Amino acid sequence: MRTRDDAPVTTTAPRGSGAVSAGRGSGGPAPRRATIAARTLRTDRWWVQPLVTVVVLLLFIAYSTFRAFQNAYYSAEPYISPFYSPCITTRCEGDSFPEFFTGPAWISPAIYILVLPLGIRLTCYYYRKAYYRSFWLSPPACAVAEPHRRYTGETRFPLVGQNVHRYFLYAALLFNVILFYEAVRGFRDETGEWGHMGLGTLILLVNAVMLFLYSVSCHSCRHIVGGRLNSFSKHPLRYRAWTLVSRLNARHMQYAWISLFTVAFADFYVFLLATGTITDLRFF
């Protein structure tokens, strides 16, 4: 008679429990995991990444909030700051976009439109991981215990609102088109004559490209393009589009950070031009 250890293993044989600790030798169950009082056994500087994330995001929030409420120095022909684009009130500096209404003088034109770009950043899958770990320490790093006693996920207010991310993506794609429009307008000089290009043109164009890559590399965009398909072979065009978006999605984190810097730098460059601190470097 064959023992259990000698029995042949078939492809349908169930796997064992996979316990990694040895039993007591009496046929009883393996002991439970040892209680570890320390928050983590990691000896590396695991806290550096969440700390850097907090510092960078706070600096961006502080700068963008100041610029949005400053309500000045956001236009220098033919450029306009991406924080104020599209500028849709009659109180806007310049005339780069149709003006739909007259807003109160004390309300900055940026307030009307920044809620949409801010919305996609706040609900973005990558940024959610970034600020959950850095601001809420949930958890701060791998193999590091979080300080919270309860975990409810995104099932309660306000985090249940993260589910609107897809709709913010639709708005962001519209903003991407507008930013490309503003970049194309940069191929003019300060008098409005076409056929010219300055350093500001290049900066606005790079910013538009990076924000577009950030949008289309989004996890929701990947699902919109290739989700709910049972057979890719019946949808070859969507499969090709899904493959391309999947490749971009692998670099979504990089696009998220690069586009954060490009949009701030583009605004800062326009601010320097508008205040007369520098003059635009003209290529032709």
Distance between the termini: 91 Å
**Quantity of strands, as a count:** 2
Q: How would the global form be characterised?
A: globular
What is the typical, i.e. mean, pLDDT?
Answer: 87
User: Share of helix among residues?
Assistant: 40-55%
Please indicate the count of domains: 1
Output the strand order for the largest sheet.
1-2
Structure description:
- The chain has 284 residues and is an all-alpha fold.
- The chain has one domain.
- The chain contains 9 helices and 2 strands; from the N terminus they run αββαααααααα.
- About 4% of the residues have low confidence.
Short description:
With 284 residues, the chain is mainly α.
Describe the secondary-structure layout.
Layout: H1 48-70, E1 75-76, E2 79-80, H2 109-113, H3 115-123, H4 125-134, H5 165-185, H6 199-216, H7 219-226, H8 236-249, H9 252-274
Antiparallel strand pairs: 1-2
Helix pairs in contact: 1-4, 3-5, 5-6, 6-9, 7-8
Top keywords for this entry?
284 residues, mainly alpha, single chain, 46% helix, globular, 1% strand, 2 strands
